[in-house]
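for the writeup, i need someone to sanity check this before i put it in the appendix. the sequnce is what the collaborator sent (i think, or maybe the updated version? ugh). structure was predicted straight from it, no edits. if anything looks off just tell me and ill rerun, i have time this weekend
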Amino acid sequence: MSVSKKEYAKMTEKASPPSPSYLNYPKAFLIGGLICCLGQGLTNFYKDVIGKEIIEARACTSITLIGITAVLTALGWFSYIAKHAGAGTVVPITGFANAVVSPAIEFKSEGQIFGVGAKMFIIAGPVVVYGTFAAFIYGIIYWIAQRFF
């Protein structure tokens, strides 16, 4: 059965109707904001209650948010939250944690090395590569700016 490009476009449009952006934007803003508020609360907790220095408190906050996201992903709850929050869960560090944990869980049946180890960074790998490259370029620009301006 051959389908023309025009027919395929109609089928695609029917299968994936446009999402209501008037609802998506506020939900992404609110849930992303809640994640950021949780992060700030954790930083304050680690700094004021536990007594960590601010740099250590921030590191502990990142680790905690990654851990919470990993657990929520493993339980299957994070996808429900992300379904409603959209970019609100993708932009913070929680999106990166989910992008690492999801493939690891999905390919667990293929073994620790060729499943979990090989597939863990299948989604997050490009983020690491291009993020590192961008940081390198920005570092060079910053060094040149500091040296000559």
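Residues 25-124 form one domain. Residues 89 and 95 are 5 Å apart (CA to CA).
thx in advance!!
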